[in-house]
Prior knowledge:
Layout: E1 6-9, H1 24-35, E2 41-43, E3 48-55, E4 58-65, H2 72-83, E5 90-96, E6 104-108, H3 115-123, E7 131-136, H4 146-151, H5 156-179, H6 181-189
Parallel strand pairs: 1-4, 1-5, 5-7
Antiparallel strand pairs: 2-3, 3-4, 6-7
Helix pairs in contact: 1-5, 2-3, 5-6
Amino acid sequence: MPDIRLIVGLGNPGPEYHNTRHNAGATFVENLASYFNIPMKYEAKFFGFTGRGLIEGKDVRLLIPTTFMNKSGQSVGAMCTFYKILPDELMVAFDELDFEPGIAKFKVGGSSSQNGIRDIVRCLANQKDFLRLRIGIGHPGHKGQVTGHVLGRAKPDEQAQIDEVIDEAVRCVPILLKDGLTSAQHRLHSFTATPKK
Length: 197
């Protein structure tokens, strides 16, 4: 797998969506930028906040789109086009209904019902083979409750688990860049956040 050159965190813009379940990907990139002291700034041409820094000696760009989730491809596509970043040099972090809070996994390609991922695939000319970081937020149990669930804030105990696994995922990024995907998967996929009581 080629080096990752762009790491994207998905979410919705505005204070009303900050720290909602749907913004787990954006929170991951915020934490990643903080951990590696990478300053983020708004760039209108990329429709989002961007940063650039070295992680494990690798030149990596960060992006948090300020489009709404279902228009994420506008931001990601603009940056990939401008810097000639190929799909297999891209990693996208996002919330995953199919995993419980406290679980996160790396995956390359595949289908997804997540609106941001679907729009990115569309804007990359249906190229699906980019790396995804799926951050578990749990499923409400009924399809009709999904919108309210993802746009709402997690209960404190669940949020603590989400925060814990995001922190672990941040620590796996240097492993990913230095030792490769398999090593990063081995560490992250064996991690489960401690349930809080």
